[in-house]
Amino acid sequence: MAQLRIALAQVNPTVGDLGGNADLIVAWSRRAAEAGAHLVAFPEMMLTGYPIEDLALRASFVQASQRALEQVARRLADEGLGDLPVVTGYVDRRAVSLVRTGQPAGSPLDAAAWLHGGEVLVRSAKHHLPNYGVFDESRVFVRGDRLPVVRLHGVDVATAVCEDLWQDGGPVSVTDTAGAGLLLVLNASPYERNKDDVRLELCARRAREAGCALAYVNMVGGQDELVFDGDSVIVGADGDLLARAPQFTEHLLVADLAVPAADPAARPGRVPADALDGTTITIDRRVLSPDPLPAYPVRPQELAEPLDDLAEVYGALVLGTRDYVRKNGFRSVLVGLSGGIDSALVTTIAADALGPDNVHVVMLPSRYSSEHSVSDAEELVKRQGVHARIVPIRGMVDAFEAEVELHGLAAENLQARIRATVWMGLSNEHGHLVLTGGNKSELATGYSTLYGDSAGGFAPIKDLVKTLVWDLSRWRNGRAGSDLPFLHPFTGPPIPEAIIAKEPSAELSPGQRDSDSLPPYEVLDPLLTDYVERDLGRDALIAAGHDPALVERVIRLVDLAEYKRRQYPPGPKVTSKNFGRDRRVPITNRWREPAAD
Amino acid sequence: MAQLRIALAQVNPTVGDLGGNADLIVAWSRRAAEAGAHLVAFPEMMLTGYPIEDLALRASFVQASQRALEQVARRLADEGLGDLPVVTGYVDRRAVSLVRTGQPAGSPLDAAAWLHGGEVLVRSAKHHLPNYGVFDESRVFVRGDRLPVVRLHGVDVATAVCEDLWQDGGPVSVTDTAGAGLLLVLNASPYERNKDDVRLELCARRAREAGCALAYVNMVGGQDELVFDGDSVIVGADGDLLARAPQFTEHLLVADLAVPAADPAARPGRVPADALDGTTITIDRRVLSPDPLPAYPVRPQELAEPLDDLAEVYGALVLGTRDYVRKNGFRSVLVGLSGGIDSALVTTIAADALGPDNVHVVMLPSRYSSEHSVSDAEELVKRQGVHARIVPIRGMVDAFEAEVELHGLAAENLQARIRATVWMGLSNEHGHLVLTGGNKSELATGYSTLYGDSAGGFAPIKDLVKTLVWDLSRWRNGRAGSDLPFLHPFTGPPIPEAIIAKEPSAELSPGQRDSDSLPPYEVLDPLLTDYVERDLGRDALIAAGHDPALVERVIRLVDLAEYKRRQYPPGPKVTSKNFGRDRRVPITNRWREPAAD
Question: Which purpose does this protein serve, as stated in its record (chains A, B) (predicted)?
Fold first, then answer.
């Protein structure tokens, strides 16, 4: 057996910020060196951020990434870190690229490199390109076809990238053949509810298949709709969990491993291997330091406790919101506070993400606003200490109605649009990003006003069905005084109980209730989940126990609301389908689920 | 040689409308039979419309398509058309589908089938799946691996689908081996400027490679941002053009071909062939009628004259607008008419698409509107006979400003948002779809107001740079009295000359001119085209002759406007990058083109 101390740098890069991301690599490599690590690994596409989408097709961008990689290698050496092998993701391109219909321009690669001694030691790239869910990688990358195996202190360390772990065949399938002692996998794997369990099982299974320990370093942070949750792990060759980093926060996970020493007979050089997916992977062996280290005392194992389900969701919303605001150059947000539960939760998430002092709420009562709406909103402002302002909209509504006669829904929508116009005016005047309060039950059924309550820059709860909005509000109120790192230290429950308890209403017409237009959320939400996330058809929904008439009605509502959803701001993804890039349905679409035979 | 009369049904299906599309198949098959055709071919995915995107992943949808195919086969026979072979596109699935990470759920196929005698004779599917530009087919389809060759009146007719023509290898590459006399290609190929020339050359090249005549049937019609232009063609084995259908209109192209008779020694059955792309294609031979027909008199060749460049663009805008409105269930549109060129052209396109009686314009003068704006708009209304209404917004602006103090851009945006609120109110009240007036130069640089002038349901000129807006306006004025099928028969020029001649202004502040904020459009537009469509980086732009300071400024404007563009309504695509699905850039993106070395 040979000992190795590895450091997984679970950090938060920004898409396109090559300079800032390079700074992160140097800073966290220094921390790793200070912790005595023999190797530090960064996430997939660390240098460029992830996902870069069509930036990969821009020659100047790929070239800048290639140069930045070599610069960071030199800089590490210049700053005394040249002896520490640093493994990082970046975008590269195939040296010889064919211009062919159907092939991404410039043949970009989702690449990984070992940096050492001021130079790039070995390069490889992701083999399996995910092109499902939120991923469009067949569009922008070509396949890698190499498994680097670097001998470090007598341990053969193989590297692979993210999806290569998820799909059968490819580099991971030849790791066993290569006789590696450790498989290092660089990831940018976005959060989704319960995905952490799936990932850990996957790591354990692949470790057993590869017959070696597996270290999985994941990105952390928000990028548009995606939230990378970290949760980096190390498992042994038997699949047992050895070390685990916390979720939703940057972290250096340092662990001492004892793994089989490399076979000295395995010489440097390139050997082709059948990748069991119809392709050939070249095993590319390099030697940095052939001999195992003398025995040294090991550090205690670090095993962060995974968060429970609601804490995970809340953590994703806070991190996703904070990073969207910050990485887009904003410092403060504006929320239209109605007195209802949605805007109350959004305000709370914003206060947790940015601190109450960076949260500005505006209350815009109309002739239909109930008294409790204003007083409940004021109570929330008091509890959280956010900035608040009241702007009555009655005079504006009157001015429109003096010129244009509107009835029913058109008149209801007018109020919502006037409110949005005030939000956007204040946003433009003061530089706050507008947070949108809509939830997934509303988005799904189209129960919102285009350019009204759906306006804004980011929608923190767009992927929560209404019942989850309530659950999460109760959960947050129960965590006053908690030391979870993503919560602001409010001393009491931040959301007034009356706001959680009241019956939901849009308050756009006299005595209006959500239940006038929609079934009770306890009935609606499971149906929406089955239709949207599980993609069940009409018959399957009825077979699953949903009321046939309701199925008919809800399918129709969901199908007709596609245009509104397209215009909705992005928001953190927490389910398999958040109405973002993960579900792509034509706007012009006459398909209606057929009636049962 | 053997004779064959083929009919290409260049028709306009609607996504998801399986019943309506089946009706089209029957109706146009009858027309083909009446024209004495021996075979009729419909476009790719005729039965489902195209593109269906994630509907392909919905089991109930694929099943409905499979059933609809068998029903239409029976119905054709029931209605006396069973003897006419009908080739049509639809969505099918692989019989045995593996559930595997990375594979589309249910293994859907972009399929084609021959219908004959009330039954489905043979099925095949697209082999090459485009996953670039607007296409995401690796996401939703698996590859087909078969080339059907059906002997009809002694001619071996092979069939392939769309992309199989564009990429090397696959079914088209084994057509020569199969010894086919005719290759029939089913397409849903969207319009792009100058693409018709590329397509014709491609057909000619593939015909020569396959050593046989090639019949290319394309879809026509609008689907969200895509406009299928028709332009179906038939070329001989030497690549010579034999027949051509008109663009932007439904058409039955009937042509008599004389092609080599099939080799009687080639027996029915399946033979594998090397597809020259690392895969194997099965040649699947069937015999419907082994012997050539007795000689019969041929019809005259039909060769539609292709439209010139501006006519093509205008035709695409009219058809795209008409179909978006109609297929989404609207009958009328509303346009905010400012007196400027953009809204004038949009109104004209709408009048051409839907007839002036279905076009409602609203003029919303503010304190900054010039007198000529109102009078020019009124002159346009008079020339076109559209419905018009004036709604002054001064009172509404005052009501907002009484409650919220706004300056500079915030105050300018307020006016644009108030106008949009009126548009949307009238839209909700009267059921008109709002057409958005923004052009590509504005979209690119962010010179528009979120939830203001950018609001609406469809943006007919979103893919035209401003200089093209002028060119097209002049072109349209010059076509008064033309018999082009997509123009309304206005007797004089529909756009007042003063609107074309005036200096552009948003009229949101006193004496404002576009040139206060933007370079002259004659300078800006070519730079935008090079940056957005050609994807040139900073250095390449300067090398191409653009002013370095302007390059810096414009790149920054374009990069920062990504969020606004995401919220923009769809509009007909006429270039390679219309800021829709064809250009995918993260919102959160710190990438700035590097300065020259």
Answer: Catalyzes the ATP-dependent amidation of deamido-NAD to form NAD. Uses L-glutamine as a nitrogen source.
